[in-house]
Protein: RNA polymerase sigma factor 70 region 4 type 2 domain-containing protein
Amino acid sequence: MSTLTSRRTDHSAHSPQAAPAHTSLEFSAFCALHHDQYLRYAQARLGTRTGAALLAACLHELARLWPEVLRSPSAPAFGWRLLASAAGILRAERTAGSALYQHLPATLADAVLLCHGLGLSVPEAAALTGIDECVLTGRLRLARRGLPAGTLDALAGSADVPGAPGAPGSPGSPGSR
Structure:
C-alpha cells in the first residue's frame, strides 16, 4: 500500500489533525494545515462548542467529497466555502463575530473577522478563502466604511472572539502556555 492510499486514522474533532476515521494521507495533511484557522473562525462565529461541532461535520463532509475537492482550483477555498456557508446558516446570536454580520454582508464580515478578529494577515486570509489578496483588501476597505468608528480596533482585542489575539488561550495571551 502506498503512502498516498487510504489508511486508518483516529483523531478527535478537537485535534489539529481532525479527520474522519478512514481518510487519505493528503486529507490528513490538509486537516493538519487548516484545522486551527477553520476552528478559530467557526468558534468566533458560533461559540466554542457549536463551532467545534460544525467544523467536525464539515471535515467529515470534505472527506466524503475529497476527490471533488482535489479537482477544485483550491482545496482550502473549497473547505472555506463549505464552512462559511454552514456557519452562516447556524450563526449564533451571542458571539462577538455575529455583530459584524448584522452590519455587513457576509463576505465583508468574514474578511474583518479573519484579519481583525482572528489576526490573520491578508495573505493568510486570502489563501484560506481562495480569493485574491487585492479582493480581500478591497473588502476590508469597504467594511471600514460600513462599520461604526472604533469597531475594528475593539474587535482586534476582543476576549469574546475565541482565538483572537489577546483572548484567553490565544498565543501570547496570559495563561496560554
User: Anything to note?
Assistant: Residues 25-46 form the longest helix (22 residues). The two ends are 40 Å apart (CA to CA). The longest strand covers residues 7-8. Residues 1-92 form one domain.
